């Protein structure tokens, strides 16, 4: 079976050049070996619109386009809470295929639910309310109508305030709600879920009415090393990529 790779929570930005460099190395060195690459949200630390012409946005666009055009790897993208404004223009520029908030795909012969993961954190009521507001058509239209520089400043201010608010929250509030996880698994009639968002990489078991479901949580990326998930005919395995020694 050809490989399928899963990544999330890279939070690429100009402020994290080492992580950006490692992602570009991953796209060049590891991703071409796979039939498909699934990016499950928060590829960017913030996405202010498909017209973003910053060096980081341009490098990522170009790298994805080269991967898809040159190596034949299919790349799928699922929106995260930091880059939900990625749209059709970005998809056309890069060749990535956009996924919905929930998507069931065949992974090593097993129907598997893919999510970014923020919808599972229902104990964080404040976040869920903010999520609804930020994704409302009125907010999106108003935000995207503003000049790029203003959007960048607004996004930076929101990230700062969000970070301050997060630091005051209890750890368990920001993790998934077990009942919510079970509800999504039952609704989609699957026994496996892969997601990111929580930055708590692990593999969990969830008792179901019939058998047990598994939940694979993806890791946040850092510049010195990054973990991703690989699916082959042997099942799911975690791999680590590190920068190539100079």
Question: What descriptors fit this protein?
Answer:
Purple Acid Phosphatase, chain A, domain 2, six-stranded mixed sheet, globular, 11 strands, 246 residues
Describe this structure in words.
By secondary structure, this protein is an alpha/beta fold. The protein has one domain (4-241): Purple Acid Phosphatase, chain A, domain 2. The chain is built from seven helices and eleven strands. The strands form two sheets. The protein has a six-stranded mixed β-sheet, with no helix packed on it. β8 and β9 form a beta hairpin. α1 packs parallel to α2. The mean pLDDT is 94.
Secondary structure elements and pairings:
Blueprint: E1 4-7, H1 17-29, E2 36-39, H2 55-71, E3 74-77, H3 88-94, E4 97-98, E5 103-107, E6 110-115, H4 125-134, H5 137-144, H6 148-167, H7 178-188, E7 192-195, E8 202-207, E9 212-217, E10 226-232, E11 235-241
Parallel strand pairs: 1-2, 2-3, 3-4, 6-7, 7-9
Antiparallel strand pairs: 1-10, 5-6, 8-9, 10-11
Q: Compute the number of helices.
A: 7
Give helix % range. Answer: 25-40%
Indicate the low-confidence ranges by residue numbers.
Answer: none
* Topology order in helix (H) and strand (E) letters: EHEHEHEEEHHHHEEEEE
Residue-averaged pLDDT = 94
Radius of gyration: 18 Å
Which outline best applies?
globular
Which architecture per CATH?
4-Layer Sandwich
CATH class group: Alpha Beta
User: What's the story with the biggest beta sheet?
Assistant: 6 strands, mixed
- The number of E-state strands comes to 11
Q: What is the CATH topology?
A: Purple Acid Phosphatase, chain A, domain 2
Q: CATH homologous superfamily - what is it?
A: Metallo-dependent phosphatases
Cα-to-Cα separation, first versus last residue: 33 Å
Strand arrangement within the widest β-sheet reads 4-3-2-1-10-11
Structural classification: alpha/beta
What's the number of structural domains?
A: 1
Strand content: 15-25%
